[in-house]
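Checklist before submission:
- one chain only
- standard amino acids only
- sequence pasted in full

Submission:
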Amino acid sequence: MNIDFPPPSSGIYNNAGSSRQLVNYMEHEDMERIANGDFAESFFNLADDGIYKSDVIQKIDANIGQLMKTDAKFYAIHVSPSATELAQMGKIEKEQSDSMKRYIREVFIPAYAQNFNKGLDANGILFYGKIHFNRERSDKASFMHCHLIVSRKDQSNKKKLSPLTNHRNTKQGAIKGGFDRKNLFQQAESGFDKLFVYQRDLQETFVYCNTMKNGSIDEKLEMQEQYLSSDTTIDFGREQNPLVKSYDEVGNIASVLGSLMTLDSQGDYDEGLAEYLKLHKKKKKKNTGISR
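Returned file contents:
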């Protein structure tokens, strides 16, 4: 599962003013789908579907108590499953979109709230989601994904929440709490596996991806050897797996704004490396046996 936080900009991700521009963008593919006879998902939140765009804009723009004119008022989040994850979520678009909404409500938003370390649960997060079905990814297939717009303030309009802060569970100083992005990625992954009973290959795991991007040469070689020499399917009970226990030793994630592996401009992992590892793993298995 690829999760990224687009940085604020002067374009659609300008979050210092009204949310209208971003919300309009989130709805941009609907007319084309409807014209083609395809169904389009409306906005949703933790409890409701079928939310009007005007309601999204009004609620986000009104929840800005004590924020300065130039302060961020909201944040955008992209949640994009891989092809294999998407296949586990359903066979047709409606099944997949229903599964995505369930995942956002039951896994992602609760984990998002928890990782601010401010005593929040999912009900404390003001957010709206929009499912997109088309995504240009160079010459690769398009996949369903989800856009989220999340208020800077919690539902009570009292607590400031920033997923881009570098503070993590601070106890003293002007900023209390922070945001643990690394833990969010791990929880989002394990939560997906539990929810959809997904058996995750080692090279799909956060610890593998983070090591291959940010680890030392020795750590990368050790991880590759582990992939080539062992049963690499990680089931949804993998919290007890020693790979996950060693996760904290890998180091901080380089950037929440980028991806976790060697990526192209649209967030794809290095398929050449993945194919190389699979090929060599097959060769190694083929050569094992008892010599006579």
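Reviewer check: The beta strands are 2-4, 74-80, 127-132, 145-151, 200-201, 233-234.
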